[in-house]
Design goal:
There is one protein chain. The chain is an alpha+beta fold and 380 residues long. It has 8 helices and 16 strands. The strands form 4 sheets. It has a 7-stranded mixed sheet. Strands 1, 4, 13, 14 and 15 form a 5-stranded mixed sheet that branches. A hairpin with a 2-residue loop joins strand 10 (289-293) and strand 11. Helix 4 (54-76) runs parallel beside helix 6 (141-168). The protein starts with 13 loop residues before the first helix and ends in a 12-residue tail after the last strand.
């Protein structure tokens, strides 16, 4: 059984690592040499777990989970760095300037304002399996492998949901740390006009506390598309901008004046037609780079809601998000929760503790081109 059949939103490709965006393709199976993988177990339908060997099945499942957790970090690294911290300071906005003095002069000391803080949530996510002692008496390795792959997919969806919610929900909120320290943490959105003044940009652009990275327009126009890109670009002089859209909105973006398409390498382009130098990925019709607009790559991703787009600076020194995990390494990543049972594989559920929060509030912006004012997508 190949994980490519169940992958619904993440991709481990060179494009992902260079300008990462959750995609559906090329999720490796984790097959190993010298022992059984889940692909091997999936073919074993004529033996029970006991006949095949519980320890062998357990070893294969644990090894697959370990590989899955490594890939999960790699596949989300374009959006989020991992952290165990509950909160971190924000950069300070300071419009101070140096002053000229003579040989005996001395300027007055200026005390910097205290930095603001951003916090990151931590939640417990479970997928119930109910691997009881009676179930294990008759279960086959193939059935176990199917359950593990389904559990990995279920948790994968939660990662996608966490990333989408952290980026597209424009409201700051307070998270109660029920998982660990029972402390309230202030989780921020992207810049949303909440009064925090963004740091002065490298090109000396000054901002105000009303600065907003959630844009809206009843329709998609050149002006609002350019505004989306510029809202992120104005915070950097070394940006690498990627605009993510739903595949259903590709035609609307291609219709914009100034959009430069990527063309199928097998198609001859007219001399008076503009086209990107790179070729269009014809192997994937739904999740790929389709062209350029206003200095940004335009990329289709199925997890972006229809009528919305996200522009992100993938070159930002600090990623736009942080993924918070428990401090204890043994609690990090997707794992089997045994509930205190001593027999291999007997378990109540799969569990993973994580949460996504905005770290770099200026490294991304969201455009809602279905409403006059920004409306967060349904289901967040």
């Amino acid at each position: 059984m190949k994980k490519t059949l169940i992958l619904m939103g993440l991709s481990l490709t060179s494009a992902l690592l260079a300008a990462p965006a959750l995609a559906r393709r090329d999720y490796p199976t984790g097959d190993r040499t010298g022992t059984h993988s889940l692909s091997d177990l999936s073919a074993i339908t004529n033996q029970t777990i006991n006949e095949f060997g519980r320890e062998a099945v357990a070893d294969s499942i644990n090894a697959d989970l370990e590989a899955h957790n490594v890939r999960m970090t790699e596949m989300t690294m374009g959006f989020a760095d991992q952290t165990t911290e509950r909160e971190e300071p924000q950069p300070i906005n300071d419009d101070a300037r140096a002053k000229r003095v003579d040989e005996v002069g001395r300027v007055s000391t200026k005390k910097a304002d205290p930095p603001g803080k951003v916090g990151y949530p931590l939640d417990t996510n479970q997928y119930a399996v109910g691997w009881t002692a009676d179930y294990l008496l008759t279960a086959t390795p193939a059935e176990m492998a199917t359950t593990v792959l389904t559990a990995e997919l279920a948790m994968l969806q939660e990662h996608i949901s966490g990333i989408r919610g952290a980026l597209m929900n424009p409201v700051n909120y307070t998270h109660f740390g029920y998982v660990d320290d029972k402390t309230e943490t202030s989780v921020k959105a992207l810049y949303n006009g909440d009064g925090q003044v963004p740091p002065r940009s490298p090109n000396l652009t000054n901002f105000t506390g009303s600065h907003n990275h959630y844009l809206a327009s009843a329709t998609l126009t050149e002006a609002v598309a350019s505004a989306l890109v510029m809202t992120v670009a104005e915070h950097t002089i070394n940006g690498n901008l990627v605009t993510l859209i739903n595949p259903a909105d590709a035609a609307a973006w291609k219709a914009l004046s100034g959009f430069v398409p990527l063309m199928d390498a097998r198609v001859r382009v007219a001399l008076d037609q503009s086209a990107g130098v790179a070729g269009l990925d014809t192997a994937n019709a739904t999740e790929r780079d389709i062209g350029y607009y206003d200095g940004s790559v335009v990329r289709t991703r199925g997890w972006i809601p229809v009528g919305y787009s996200i522009c992100q600076d993938v070159n930002a020194t600090s990623k736009v998000l942080r993924r918070r995990v428990p401090r204890q390494p043994v609690r990090q990543g997707l794992r089997v929760y045994t509930g205190g049972f001593v027999f291999p594989l007997q378990a109540d559920y799969f569990v993973e503790q994580f949460g996504y929060g905005v770290r770099n509030r200026g490294a991304a912006a969201v455009l809602d081109f279905s409403h006059v004012s920004y409306t967060k997508p349904a289901g967040l």
